[in-house]
Specification:
Mean pLDDT: 80
Distance between the termini: 81 Å
Number of helices: 21
Oligomer: single chain
Shape: extended
Low-confidence stretches: 381-390, 470-475
Structural class: alpha/beta
Strand content: 15-25%
Strand order of the largest sheet: 2-1-3-4-5
Largest sheet: 5 strands, parallel
Helix content: 40-55%
Radius of gyration: 34 Å
């Protein structure tokens, strides 16, 4: 049996209390009458009623003040208040609503009117409470879904990192002409395809809301398309399809774009899959690359036609026709991915018996294109030298990761000697190794059982501060590099605040791993490659940033975390714009130290940034 609803009646006239109590009690309500506003506040706070009937004209604390105090108290603010008074002027009613009442009953009252108003507002209050409970449940469900999604994405990315990493290792060791290397390339491609699906599962919702942050880089779209085509090789072979690649007369034998490589992989995975499914056996799927304005444009042409009824809605959500297993989501997601990268996608059915889809993505500037091609050429011709263990000095390196496949992959590709590797499978074990104070670099997985990577680094940084309280000297410390299946802004911010030096995303490319190691183990030989177009701007830029470092030191001396954080944020943006990646990372760390008001760490980081700029070698290519 449900508990009867309770009503608190407040009136300084005993007769009124008696009449109201009898009317309401007869309907089954639990009634509590009080004669004063002060007593009403105490009674409501001790045992909040479901509704309050409140007289206005009372000695001492009147009804208006009583209502205001009820609404100011967190325990009683949501209780519906109905004024019941002989004051029937408009001004009295308006003032009653202003202090928080929901209704106004004029004396002398009728029993039927009182009961109708009470029932209505109790029903409304119940509905509001149900909505509040439902909203709480929805928020909890959304939070749980996001937590599960993050865990799945991390675990799946971690497993795929081993599949992709070892496949690419086999390709490197066997050479491109080996048949088994080609098989490994197919395995790696399938791994990237799964990685792409994981990547897009949650991010598509962000794209729909317009809050997805694309991580732009310059890359060759031809490589991505060829990779996607190879992943569909078995299906294409079963239909005896051929693939053709052509380039416009005005373009080079590549198609450089500024976008997110993994996002483009997902985009073309959907479109190429559709083209293969729609093509009759024995025909061709043709890719043409060229320039259109400030964009790189690629067209995908295949035999077969899109049904006329859906052509105008081809890229809308859930639009499909003629496919028993079609969801109508592939082309929609392709449009979202293109637009997220400041590009576009369109359908052309003007050619009889054929369908062509055009995708346009931002093209890098001529200077950026030249720089990319120079770096790519150097990397290809210098492949063996880049990965030579001679370039790395002898050093102790810790790998803290609970995933045996990740540990095995890093153990295989990191050169021993000169590196001396040790391993930890949980946070506590890793913390003990870090505190031994003999490591040069530590690779730390963020998601470990027990003490996770973020908690581990927080504990280690606290241990460091305890060793050198009140000093500006940093105890000898390893470079802490986080490894995660996530690379979203929240994860990056957590890592910065915890005290990581850098963050890598699984799967970690061998080239990226070596570059990070070289930077960590040979800080005295830091090199930055900049665009030749800004050569004349660099001397004044570096001088101005050094001047700003003195301002940072002043804010540290004044313990002014706000201005320290603001100036560090400005430095971070300036360094990032010109291409000084390490300086930008250090500025970000200074900003985080300002936010937490850790001025000792800020002073250390400012010294590190000044030393980095002093020894930096700037090259233009």
């Amino acid at each position: 049996m449900s508990k009867p609803q309770s009503i608190l009646i407040v009136d300084d006239t005993a007769e009124n209390l008696t009449v109201l109590r009898d009317i309401l009690a007869h309907e089954g309500y639990r009634v509590r009458p009080v004669l004063q506003g002060a007593l009403a506040l105490k009674s409501a706070a001790a045992d909040p009623p479901d509704l309050i009937l409140l007289d206005i004209m009372m000695p001492g604390m009147d009804g208006y003040e009583t209502c205001e105090r009820l609404k100011a108290d967190e325990k009683t603010r949501d209780i519906p208040v109905l004024f019941i008074s002989a004051l029937d002027g408009t001004e009295s009613k308006v003032h009653g609503f202003e202090v928080g009442a929901l209704d106004y009953i004029i004396k002398p009252f009728r029993a039927g009117e009182v009961l109708a108003r009470v029932r209505t507002h109790l029903a409304l209050q119940e509905a509001r409470q149900r909505l509040v409970a439902q909203n709480v449940e929805l928020r909890q469900a959304a939070s749980l879904r996001e937590d599960v999604d993050r865990m799945l994405r991390h675990d799946l990315r971690g497993s795929l990192a081993g599949v992709i990493g070892f496949s690419e290792l086999i390709i490197d060791e066997l050479g491109p002409e080996n048949e088994s290397a080609e098989h490994a390339r197919v395995i790696a491609g399938a791994g990237y395809a799964m990685l792409s699906m994981i990547h897009s599962s949650f991010d598509l919702m962000k794209m729909e809301r317009g809050v997805y942050e694309a991580k732009a880089e310059i890359f060759d779209l031809v490589e991505v398309v060829r990779q996607v085509v190879s992943e569909h090789g078995l299906t294409a072979e079963q239909k005896s399809l051929r693939f053709r690649y052509t380039f416009a007369e005005t373009s080079d034998e590549d198609a450089l774009v500024r976008g997110e490589r993994l996002l483009c992989h997902s985009l073309f995975h959907n479109l190429v899959k559709n083209a293969i499914e729609a093509s009759p056996p024995g025909r061709s799927v043709e890719f043409r690359f060229g320039l259109k304005g400030e964009c790189t444009e690629i067209s995908i042409r295949n035999a077969g036609v899109v049904p006329e009824g859906i052509r105008g809605r081809f890229f809308d959500k859930f639009v499909t026709e003629g496919k028993t297993d079609g969801t109508g989501f592939g082309t929609y997601s392709a449009r979202l991915m293109a637009e997220t990268q400041q590009g576009s996608v369109r359908l052309d059915c003007s050619e009889l018996g054929h369908t062509t889809i055009f995708v346009a993505l931002p093209h890098p500037t001529p200077a950026e294109s030249a720089q990319f091609r120079t770096a790519r050429s150097q990397a290809q011709s210098d492949h063996v030298r880049r990965f030579s263990s001679i370039e790395l000095p002898a050093a102790d390196v810790l790998i803290a990761d609970d995933d045996p496949a990740s540990r095995a992959y890093l153990k295989r590709i990191l050169p021993t000697p000169p590196l001396r590797l040790s391993f930890a499978t949980n946070g506590n074990e890793a913390l003990a190794r870090l505190c031994e104070n003999s490591l040069a670099v530590a690779f730390i997985d963020l998601e470990m059982p027990g003490m996770n990577g973020v908690e581990l680094v927080q504990a280690f940084r606290a241990w460091q501060r305890a060793r050198a309280p009140g000093t500006a000297s940093r105890p000898p410390t390893p470079v802490l590099i986080g490894i995660s299946g996530h690379h979203d802004p929240v994860t990056r911010e957590r890592c910065r605040e915890a005290g990581f030096d850098r963050l890598l995303t699984k799967p970690v490319a061998k080239r990226k791993l070596y570059d990070e190691l070289k930077q960590a183990l040979s800080p005295g030989s830091a090199v930055v490659h900049l665009d030749p177009a800004i050569r004349d701007l660099i001397p004044d830029f570096v001088a101005s940033q050094n001047a700003l470092l003195k301002e940072l030191e002043g804010f540290v001396a004044m313990s002014d975390g706000g201005r320290l954080r603001s100036l560090a944020h400005r430095l971070q943006g300036s360094f990032a714009m010109y291409g000084f990646e390490t300086a930008s990372r250090l500025s970000t760390a200074i900003e985080a130290a300002g936010k937490s008001e850790d001025f000792r760490r800020a002073r250390i980081l400012i010294d590190d940034l000044r030393a980095h700029l002093r020894r930096l070698e700037i090259r233009f290519a």
